[in-house]
């Protein structure tokens, strides 16, 4: 389980800079930098009306990850203790990124 902060407040699953999903997937199979990754679980909160009415923020969650060039990627799973997803104001998943991506040397 990974501790996760997320500042994508335009996402349906965001509450107080935490994610309310039990698991997310980070995309970016060819990523060599943070901006080439994205949160594949992003869903736009179009009208803001149903903002996590029935959800509770998860501070730790399972992170599946396609960014296999990252040092934290272990068999398509993130083994970092703490990551941050960024993309405040995003309206699509490509506008988000895993800010903790770190390329393998
Ligand atoms: S962008 Fe991803 S990590 Fe952030 S709240 Fe949405 S689903 Fe969760």
Q: Quick recap of the structure?
A:
The chain has 105 residues and is mostly beta strands. Helices cover 0% and strands 28% of the residues.
Number of H/I helices: 0
Q: What Rg do the Cα atoms give?
A: 13 Å
Strand order of the largest sheet: 5-4-6-1-7-8
**Distance between the first and last residues' Cα:** 24 Å
Give the number of DSSP strands: 8
Distinct ligand kinds: iron/sulfur cluster
Work out the count of structural domains: 1
Give an overview of the whole structure.
The two termini are 24 Å apart. The chain is globular, with a radius of gyration of 13 Å. The chain has one domain. The protein is mostly beta strands and 105 residues long. The chain has a six-stranded mixed β-sheet with strand order 5-4-6-1-7-8, with no helix packed on it. It contains no helices and eight strands. Iron/sulfur cluster binds at residues 6, 8, 11, 13-14, 19, 21, 24, 39, 41-42, 85, 96. Iron/sulfur cluster binds next to loops.
Task: List the SSEs and their pairings.
Layout: E1 2-6, E2 14-15, E3 18-19, E4 23-27, E5 38-39, E6 60-65, E7 82-86, E8 97-98
Parallel strand pairs: 1-7, 4-6
Antiparallel strand pairs: 1-6, 2-3, 4-5, 7-8
The chain binds iron/sulfur cluster.
Identify the notable features of this structure and list them briefly.
mainly beta, six-stranded mixed sheet, two-stranded antiparallel ribbon, binds iron/sulfur cluster
């Amino acid at each position: 389980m990974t501790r996760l902060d997320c500042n994508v407040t335009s996402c349906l699953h965001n509450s107080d800079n935490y994610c309310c999903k039990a698991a997310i997937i980070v995309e970016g199979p060819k990523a060599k930098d943070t901006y080439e990754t994205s949160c594949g679980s992003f869903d736009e909160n179009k009208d803001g009306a149903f903002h996590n009415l029935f959800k509770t923020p998860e501070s730790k969650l399972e992170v599946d990850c396609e960014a296999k060039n990252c040092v934290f990627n272990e068999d398509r799973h993130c083994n970092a203790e703490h990551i941050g997803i960024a993309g405040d104001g995003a309206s699509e998943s490509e506008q988000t990124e895993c800010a903790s991506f770190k390329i393998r040397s």
